[in-house]
Specification:
The chain contains eleven helices and 17 strands. The protein is an alpha/beta fold and 352 residues long.
């Protein structure tokens, strides 16, 4: 398993994904400010991982105040949550993790060992993500057949999560069960997560992989060269509409038009029970300069205007199944998502 996030000597250490696959450089975060910068500047990415890192950020912020001899007030924690919540607005796992850390603080704020307790909560979020993704991956592997050619977009592997993966976790679980697979990874402009991260992860796992430009998806699906498409998610609405890396919607259209099953793999922390459809999902628009440069090297003229939306929304009608740690959801997604969250609320409220 890739060691891309760990706690050591009072600091959070993060593998800087901007330099992969050619260099392994770790960023050490000793305070909340450094964590916020790591999320915003794409040192880390992937919805589940962003949530985990933000949880550690709250722990660091609380521990900073304690170490300085200052009291930790409710307003301090709210300020920390606002700061981290402003870094990447589309990924709902971020807000899910912040809410959980806020509840943990409210429960234990009067304890003398608050700094340790709040850190333990962040560690729990981290460990639970790994276990949940292993479970959903086993469920999802049942949808994969021997000799399947699977197309995936962006990176939804260990690097995007606590350590196992969602979309790539399903592929990994199918591979571990003995199925022969071939994966087609899109390059994923402009950060090239597919080229730099997905292809590297799969090669490290011994899984057959080839890289294609993003604009090949339609041709590959039309020619029958893809058996299934599987992606991760950054936010899923109550009706099943799914936000993921920009270009996912295009891939879903190509798959649907050519009868290729399109799967989404995501833990329950990626579902947003507070929104009805994808129309309510805020889409992050990043600096257009990120399209005009790659690693500080210009790819066009300086005065060319550029636009870069980080995500798009795939309508539920284009999705065959949504894979979760509670099982595989089929249509109508709204019905089963409602059942999932009703059961979750009942479980959380059960005093036993």
């Amino acid at each position: 398993m890739i060691n891309h996030i760990f706690w050591k000597n009072g600091a959070l250490h993060l593998l800087d994904q901007r330099y992969l696959p050619f260099k392994k450089i770790y960023v050490r975060c000793r305070g909340l400010k450094e964590v916020a910068s790591a999320i915003k500047d794409m040192v880390v990415r992937g919805a589940p991982l962003i949530g985990i890192v933000a949880a550690y950020g709250i722990a660091l912020g609380v521990r900073e105040l304690i170490a300085s001899g200052k009291p930790v007030r409710d307003s301090d924690v709210e300020r920390m949550c606002r700061r981290l919540g402003s870094t990447r607005p589309t990924a709902v796992n971020l807000f899910w993790a912040l809410d959980r850390m806020r509840r943990s603080y409210d429960l234990y704020k009067n304890q003398a060992d608050l700094g340790e307790v709040i850190l333990e909560e962040a560690v729990s979020i981290h460990n639970e993500d790994i276990e949940n993704n292993k479970t959903l991956s086993k469920f999802g592997s049942e949808l994969i057949d021997d000799d399947d050619v699977i197309l995936t977009h962006c990176n939804a592997g260990a690097l995007a999560t606590g350590g196992y993966g969602t979309a790539l976790g399903v592929i990994r679980a199918a591979h571990e069960s003995g199925k022969a697979l071939h994966v087609i990874a899109t390059e994923t402009r402009p950060y090239l997560q597919g080229a730099r991260l997905t292809a590297w992860e799969l090669r490290e796992e011994g899984i057959s992989v080839e890289l294609v430009p993003d604009n090949h998806v339609g041709l590959l699906c039309e020619r029958g060269l893809v058996d299934k498409v599987i992606v991760g998610a950054d936010r899923i609405a109550r009706n099943g509409d799914t936000a993921n890396k920009i270009g996912t919607y295009t891939a879903a259209l190509a798959a649907h038009d050519n009868g290729v099953p399109f799967f989404v793999a995501a833990p329950l922390s990626t579902f947003d029970a507070g929104i009805r459809s994808g129309e309510e999902i805020e889409i992050e628009e990043r600096d257009g300069k990120e399209v005009k440069y790659f690693r500080d090297v210009p790819v066009t003229l300086r005065d060319i205007r550029a636009r870069y939306y980080g995500f798009d929304v795939t309508p539920a009608r284009l999705i065959a199944y949504i894979i979760t740690e509670r099982g595989i959801l089929e249509k109508p997604f709204g019905k089963y998502i409602k059942m999932l969250f009703s059961a979750k609320r009942a479980y959380n409220n059960d005093p036993h």
